[in-house]
Structure formats: structure tokens, C-alpha cells
Design goal:
- The chain is built from 3 helices and 4 strands, in the order E-H-E-E-H-H-E.
- The chain is of the alpha+beta class and about 100 residues long.
- The chain has one domain: 2-Layer Sandwich (Alpha-Beta Plaits).
- Strands 2-3-1-4 form a 4-stranded antiparallel sheet.
């Protein structure tokens, strides 16, 4: 299993229509085949200046690569993420064996 996460801050004003529209567009990613346990999150820690987070799981690397290369994801990154996200950090996890 791969858990794909990102924390990010938008260029849009907090609470604006543009912010709401971006978040709604983000939620559409859960319809891409292979996406499991999708969550869109608000970051609440004062320890960093990111505002939102996204988390999703994939059964395996093939499912994750399918998502990365899916036309809907590629278009979202190109048309929404790159122009509208001010800063982000992406982390992908696998569970360590015990």
C-alpha cells in the first residue's frame, strides 16, 4: 500500500470563492481509478504555514502510477495545481515491516 500525501497553501484568499472552487476540483481526484481512502484536510498546527492537506491510498505502485499518469490528474496538476498553489510538500509513504 502507498499513502500519497501533500500539504499546501493556496494563492487564493482564505474563504474566497476561488479557494472553495479549488478544493471542490481537488475532490474530483477521488474518482480516478485506484484512489482509496481519499481525504481533503485543513491543517491546524501553528508549526508550519501550510493550510490544507490531501491524503489518499493506493493498493500498490501500479495503482499509484496509474493515478499519476491518468489524464484527469495530469490536467488537474497542469491547469489548477501549478497555477493556484503557492507552496507545497508532497510525501509518499509505505508501511515499514515490523
Amino acid at each position: 500500500m502507498i499513502r500519497h500525501t501533500a500539504v499546501f497553501r493556496l494563492k487564493h484568499a482564505a474563504g474566497s470563492a476561488a479557494e472553495r472552487d479549488f478544493l471542490a476540483a481537488n475532490r474530483a481526484l477521488k474518482a480516478i481509478p485506484g484512489v482509496n481512502a481519499f481525504e481533503l484536510l485543513r491543517q491546524v498546527s501553528p508549526k508550519n504555514d501550510f493550510t490544507f492537506g490531501i491524503s489518499m491510498e493506493f493498493a500498490d505502485d501500479a495503482a499509484y502510477q496509474g493515478y499519476n499518469n491518468h489524464p484527469a490528474h495530469v490536467a488537474f496538476v497542469r491547469d489548477r495545481w501549478l497555477p493556484e498553489v503557492a507552496a507545497f510538500m508532497e510525501i509518499d509513504y509505505v508501511v515499514l515491516p515490523e
